[in-house]
Structure formats: C-alpha cells, structure tokens
C-alpha cells in the first residue's frame, strides 16, 4: 500500500480528497466484533421489524469511521491526529451500498486544520452524514509504499446461509429421525422443522424422546412420534417408512452410526440401490469462494478402487445438485504416481476412468497433494495444468483416517462448519456427530432437501 501525506505547510484552503467504499456485510460483522456493538439491526440475519427483510443497517459510527480513513490516508494523510469531530446524520447506509467519503480543507492555523466532512450514497446521491473535523496536521513528509495490513477472514458461514435460503422455499421433506432422545439430536431436528426444511417423524423410545423435549422446553405438538424399543428396531422402522413412501430422508439421532447403517444395508429391508454407501462432508470454510466437499470421512475405512469410484460419483452428484461445477481432486501424499503409494495409483486410475466415461458429471484429476489441489500458486509451482489442480472443490481422501482428520482440522482450526450426508442409499441420510453445532445440523438438513428435489441423474449403479 502506497501512502503519501500533505504536510501542514503544503495544505491549502479548498484542498479536497475523496474515498469510495462498498459497504459489505462482512464490514458490519468486523465492526460488531471490534466495537462490541452487536445490535442485531446491523447484522446480516436480523429482521427486527418482522417484514421478512434483513435490515443490515450500517452503524452510524462505522460510516463515521470512513471519514477517519480519508483523513488518515489522503488529506492530510499519515501523521494526522484527531482533535475533534462533529457529526450530523441525515440518512442510513446499508450493507451493499457504495458511498463516497469527502473531506475539504476549510481553514488552518497554528498546526490545526479544520475540514468539512460528508458521506454520500452513490446510487441515489443521498446525503448520509455531514460534519466538521479538527485535526493536527503532520509536519514531516511521508511517502512510503511498504505499508502492509494483515487481511481478515470473517468467521461467517455465507455458503450455508445461501443453502438455507435455497432450502426454505422447498416443501418440507418427511424425515425419519432415529432415536432423537437427547438434546443435540432432537434439537437439530426441531430446528430444521422450525425452518420448514424437514417434517420430522421421531422414532425411538417415546418416553425418552418426550423427556428430552421437556428438558429442552420444546413442544412436540403436531409431530409424529413412533414408539419403538431399541436402536436396531428404530433403524429398521425408519427403513420401513422409506419403503412405505412416508419418509424421503433419514436422520441419525442418538445412536451409533454402525447401528443405523446396519439396518440400511440389509439386503431385503434396507435402502441399497447398488452403490456403496459413502459419506460427504459439505464444508463451509471461511474465506473460501464456494463449499468444499470432503469424502469419505465417516464410513469407508480403507476404500479400494471400486469403492472410490462410488465415492467420486456420489460426491459429484451431490455437488451438481447444490449447483456447483464439480472439480474432483483425488488426494495422495504426492502429485505424481508412485508405485509404492497405493493412493497415488488409485488416483491416476480414477482420473483415467473419468476420461473414459466411467465416472460422469464432473472433472476428476489425480493424484494431487493437498496444497496443489486447493491452491493455484502451489499448482503452478509444480507445473500442474488442467481445470482441477489449484481449484478442486471435491477432495477424495485416501482413507477414512485422512478424511476425518482433514474435516476436523477444518472445523476446529479453520472455523469451518460441516454438513454431513450419506449418499448411495435410496434416500439421503443426514449424519451428524454429537459435537456438531446447530448450524451444522440445520445445513445438513438443507443439503438433504436440496439434493432430494434437485433431480440430478446419478451414475449407473453397479
């Protein structure tokens, strides 16, 4: 960043400087954290007047702070110190508005400079605020181009918010919720029901489910509860509801994943369609331009080549249903084929199988290492070309341990949220862990609903 100031002696009455700024929703979150002003009126998801539209009003002092940006970087510039600022507010700015901030020198005396300050909205020329500033102007010249300010990544999950906006207008999908007899699993189902994303059918020990609801202060009025004793029996009943056409999705409650999948894998009463069951984490990673799909991280421990074919195809189908352009990076420790590293061989074969139409609907490249799969500079350094290297949005992992570790690293170190879904069954299976946040559970239901209604044709079942 190159900054140049105007010293007190160089300033003249009538000197003017302007700064244009697009106010974003992220600006409002940063200001809320920095200032402590968490008034919901200023945040993206607020709707205080109940009209169905988020207000997203920029705080007055945030808009006023843009004046300090003009004074501190343009006129007089670096070295300027405030003595006084008078503000009069005439209208409100909102996230999405582009404004022009203007300062004009009115007078100068004894090292003090008085400036007229104002902010206008560009679209309609509306006057947002006016005022006057009294500053101490710099006396030493400043002209440097090595000013570095660290970038900020706002820990806000915009991709999940967008998925929720897509899911809300859809019809609520009837969902068999298996053993929701504690707060997290029941709360996630009820939250999704409140958002009209799912229509839950609660299956399990009824007394325990109702006790969990009572402990939460939740009302189960209008929600069907099917009393079934035992986790295995509850899972079997969920499969039966799917076959009866009463459920279009299954949601894991407070039971082991193995107990849920065992019933679904039953050859006569289960939900097999010929594909391997595979798990996909849809990760909303702050700072990333789109969701990142990580697979398989929960079901297939050490997948062989044929299993990885289904892992790829299931993830591609899901990505397409979410409106993404599927770019599959098949990961290994290296980006070249090494006969001693089986995952690199599998990755090369999967890439070639996609070229020959054995995997359809997306681009598949491998082997790729993690860095050159997701970072364009790393891909270029390694001389990798193509449409996937450096911009993969689906990461196919060598095995469950690597996938699970990556997903948890993204969650606990990069502050990502993850929606979990099992694919390859007759219906989408919503799979969350006990530590998942309400946003993760809600997003998992939203992904299942969007996938259910998308009608994306799947690859050939084997």
Q: What are its keywords?
A:
13 helices, single chain, five-stranded antiparallel β-sheet, disordered C terminus, 462 residues, eleven-stranded mixed β-sheet, alpha/beta
Description:
Helices cover 33% and strands 23% of the residues. It is α/β, with parallel strands linked by helices. The strands form three sheets. Strands 10-9-8-11-18-17-12-13-16-14-15 form an eleven-stranded mixed β-sheet, sandwiched between helices. Strands 2-4-5-6-3 form a five-stranded antiparallel β-sheet, with helices on one face. β9, α5 and β10 form a beta-alpha-beta unit. It is globular.
What is the fold's blueprint, element by element?
Blueprint: E1 3-4, E2 16-22, H1 25-35, H2 60-73, E3 81-89, E4 98-109, E5 112-121, E6 127-136, E7 143-144, H3 158-167, E8 173-178, H4 183-194, E9 198-204, H5 206-216, E10 224-227, H6 231-243, E11 249-252, H7 257-264, E12 278-284, E13 292-295, H8 305-321, E14 327-331, H9 342-355, E15 363-368, H10 370-374, H11 376-381, E16 394-396, H12 400-412, E17 417-423, E18 429-430, H13 438-454
Parallel strand pairs: 8-9, 8-11, 9-10, 11-18, 13-16, 14-15, 14-16
Antiparallel strand pairs: 1-7, 2-4, 3-6, 4-5, 5-6, 12-13, 12-17, 17-18
Helix pairs in contact: 3-13, 4-13, 6-7
């Amino acid at each position: 960043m190159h900054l140049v100031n105007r010293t007190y002696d160089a300033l003249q009455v009538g000197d003017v400087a302007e700064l244009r700024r697009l106010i974003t929703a992220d600006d409002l979150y940063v200001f809320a954290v920095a200032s402590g002003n968490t008034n919901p009126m200023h945040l993206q998801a607020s709707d205080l007047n109940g009209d169905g539209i988020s207000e997203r009003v920029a705080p007055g002092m945030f808009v006023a702070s843009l004046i300090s940006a003009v004074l501190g970087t343009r006129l007089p510039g670096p070295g300027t110190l405030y003595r006084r600022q008078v503000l009069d507010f005439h209208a409100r700015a909102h996230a999405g508005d582009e404004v022009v901030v203007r300062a004009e020198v009115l007078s100068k005396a004894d090292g003090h400079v008085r400036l007229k300050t104002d902010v206008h909205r560009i679209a309609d020329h509306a006057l947002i605020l006016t005022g006057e500033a009294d500053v101490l102007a710099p006396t030493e010249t400043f002209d440097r181009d090595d000013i570095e300010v660290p970038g900020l990544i706002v820990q806000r999950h915009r991709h999940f918010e967008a998925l929720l906006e897509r899911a809300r207008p859809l019809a609520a999908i009837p969902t068999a919720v298996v053993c929701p007899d504690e707060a997290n699993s029941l709360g996630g189902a009820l939250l999704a029901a409140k958002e009209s994303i799912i229509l839950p059918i609660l299956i399990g020990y009824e007394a325990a489910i109702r006790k969990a609801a009572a402990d939460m202060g939740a009302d189960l009025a209008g929600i069907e509860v099917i009393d079934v004793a035992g986790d295995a029996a509850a899972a079997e009943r969920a499969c039966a509801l799917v076959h009866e056409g009463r459920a279009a999705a299954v949601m894991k409650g407070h039971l082991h994943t193995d107990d849920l999948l065992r019933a679904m894998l039953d050859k006569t009463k289960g939900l097999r369609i010929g594909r391997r069951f595979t798990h996909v984490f849809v990760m909303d990673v702050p700072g990333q331009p789109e969701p990142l799909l990580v697979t398989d991280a929960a079901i297939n421990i050490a997948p062989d080549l044929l299993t990885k074919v289904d892992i790829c195809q299931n993830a591609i189908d899901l990505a397409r249903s979410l409106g993404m352009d599927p770019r599959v990076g098949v990961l290994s420790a290296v980006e070249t084929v090494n006969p001693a590293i089986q995952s690199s061989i599998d990755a090369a074969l999967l890439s070639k199988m996609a070229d020959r139409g054995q995997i359809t609907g997306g681009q598949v490249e491998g082997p790729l290492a993690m860095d050159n799969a997701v970072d364009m500079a790393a891909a270029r350094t390694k001389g990798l070309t193509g449409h996937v290297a450096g911009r993969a949005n689906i990461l196919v992992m060598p095995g469950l341990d690597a996938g699970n570790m990556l997903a948890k690293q993204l969650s606990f170190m990069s502050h990502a949220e993850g929606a979990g879904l099992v694919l390859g069954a007759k219906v989408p299976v919503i799979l969350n862990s006990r530590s998942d946040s309400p946003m993760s559970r809600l997003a998992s239901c939203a992904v299942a609903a969007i996938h259910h209604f998308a009608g994306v044709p799947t690859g050939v079942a084997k």
